[in-house]
Amino acid sequence: MKTYGLIGFPLEHSASADYFNAKFKAEGLNAEYKPFAIESLKDLSDILKQNPSLRGFNVTSPHKENILNHLSYIDPEAKLIGAVNVVKIKRGFLGRKEFWGYNTDYLAFEETIRNLDLPPFQKALILGSGGASKAVERSFKRLGIACDVVSRTPQGAQKSYHDITPEVLTSYTIIVNATPLGMQPYIDKAPEIPYHALSDNQLCYDLIYNPEKTEFLKQAEARGARIKNGLEMLILQANEAWEIWRRS
After folding, report:
1. For residue 179, what pLDDT band results from cuts at 50, 70 and 90?
2. Which of 45, 72, 103, 215 has the most CB atoms around it within 10 Å of its CB?
3. Which of 70, 102, 134 is a domain's end point?
4. Which PANTHER family does the entry mention (predicted)?
5. What is the pLDDT of residue 248?
6. Per-residue pLDDT, 91
7. Are residues 116 and 68 in the same domain?
8. Exposed (0-12), middle (13-18) or buried (19+): which is 118, by Cβ within 10 Å?
């Protein structure tokens, strides 16, 4: 039996195992998908030793950026983004294991934005500056949508949360939560922005899908904003990951 999995921490919120195991069963595949909750990538070697049938794995927070240091090959788009969410395990010279990294987050997010059929001249604000944020930023660039990134520790052109005044917030038509605030163990939290300034002219998109409606989305909906969670993105990026794993 071939094994696939997910590394990250925490993983209680993740639906990846349920999704893939249902997919494998429906397609009659002799495969399984397992969650590997690891706080440090130092524990990755133990996962590999304990699971010799592992053929690939997804990567989620907080490892999407640091995993790059553990890879044999990084897809050019993933290297440009600076984050990887899919790893394929291949056999190289003399059967030695190689770890190839890819990013399917940006493709999935980009498709979900296209599916929304938004009017032209959009401007986006991304809350958070981690691996997921970098993929979203790449998607917006490919779509020709101007965007800014907000970080607790801003670098370069990034903004701080103190910069996001009500007047500034109203200048954006898309606001994306790419932070872990809203999922376990931060389920009652949301990024600190002036929610009272939101309106029905804006789309608030949370990459989190569990819970279905985060505090960020509840606050946005209460102000009349259009809302969307990350479930569609999860499914799209998972399907892209499977296409990578199944290729020889």
Report:
1. very high
2. 103
3. 102
4. BIFUNCTIONAL 3-DEHYDROQUINATE DEHYDRATASE_SHIKIMATE DEHYDROGENASE, CHLOROPLASTIC, SHIKIMATE DEHYDROGENASE
5. 61
6. 85
7. no
8. middle
User: 25, 34, 49, 64: which one is catalytic?
Assistant: 64
Do 148 and 210 have their domain in common? yes
User: Rounded distance, CA 241 to CA 248, Å?
Assistant: 13
User: Do residues 88 and 21 share a domain?
Assistant: yes
What would the pLDDT profile of 197-245 be if each residue is shown by its tens digit? 999 999 999 999 999 999 999 999 999 999 999 999 999 999 999 999 9
How high is the pLDDT of residue 94?
A: 77
For residue 48, give the CATH number of its domain. 3.40.50.10860
pLDDT number for residue 92: 77
Rounded distance between C-alpha atoms, residue 89 and residue 101, angstroms: 9
Specify if 248 maps to a domain: no
Using an 8 Å Cβ cutoff, are 169 and 123 in contact?
no
Domain with residue 160: its CATH number is 3.40.50.720
Is the pLDDT reported for residue 168 higher than 90? yes
Q: Is 90 a catalytic residue?
A: no
Q: Which two tokens stand for residue 209?
A: 């899908």
What's the full length of the chain, in residues? 248
- Cα separation of the two ends of the chain: 17
Please tell me the predicted confidence (pLDDT) of residue 67. Answer: 98
Amino acid letter, residue 137: E
Residues 111 and 225 in one domain: yes
Q: Is the peptide bond before 76 cis (omega within 30 degrees of 0)?
A: no
